[in-house]
Amino acid sequence: MSGLLDRVLCVGCAAGLDPRAPAIACAGCGESFPRVGSIPVLLPQAAAHVELWRRQLALLLASGAKTKAGLEAEARAPGVARAGSVRLEAMARAVGAQVDDFAALLGPALGGPLEEPAAGLPRGVVEYSYYLFRDWGWTGPDARENEQALEALREVAPGDLGRVLVLGAGACRLATDLHRHLGATETAVVDIDPYLFVIAEAVVRGRAVRLTEASLNVMEASHVSMAWTLRAPEGPLGDDRFHFFLANGLEPPFADGAFDTVVTPWFIDRVPTDVPAFLATLRRLLRPGGRWLNQGPLLYPPEVPIARRHSRDELFELCAAAGFQVGASNVASRPYLVSPLTGAGKIERVLTFSALRRAG
Length: 360
Description:
By secondary structure, this protein is of the alpha/beta class. 35% of the residues lie in helices and 24% in strands. The protein contains 9 helices and 13 strands.
């Protein structure tokens, strides 16, 4: 029986593509696809994406050095109280340590920084690094976000998940928990951000990874930073059953009907600009009778027109029109990215539901 790696498609011409080949190239159109570390980059103009990520790494290093030097200068400025100097110096060390940690992990995978202009800093560091800490680092009696996410999905998805695709998998803890505990036979995870994915893959494969959490908004100077050790609590998952792809979650490069289950965690309200079109993509990817599992708060970015900020009822209507039968659902207010370092975070109202792909 063929596996998921036999159902991968070229993003250029939709011909079959073998991501296991030493050099990934399409026999149909001749397009080649690099890797970042061991992760295939299945994007149009894939080499240009890798160059962009390398330029972002150079910008991250330069920006980190500039921020660190600025904080050190402020700490030495006349009139700064001793406690203020201590805080600023601690922040400078924290910024330097965090940038160094990311560079040490990403540099070898990307091929080093590329000293050319970049449009902006990598979002995986600036916006999403807390996902790595939450998924693999934070500990203690209050660190239950991962457990709560899994249990909410377990409630709406009885039975085995089978062949699973997780779109926007991020730091990948939910994807690995689903794989281990809800009967997945094979899982493919997709994201477009190497700054999360390279580190997530290292952890999933069994590596213990040091990563510094840094905060510039602190109540106590002793809580400016923490060096966490990220590790998979239940041990590694191998590449024979758990596969990483840097690819577009709106156009996943897989054959029709390749999956029994597609999961969209914190995705449907953040990424697709055309929800009906995205639902058609989900339907294509699922076999008849397959399931779509969604989890997230339905909090849309400000640039999304109000008419397209779909409520739960609207989303369920769109599902029915797209050939899905909505099943069980639950809604709960849950902590979100509450850091043990700062004690700060959010409470989000999270919707979790399953929807069956109808035949025909």
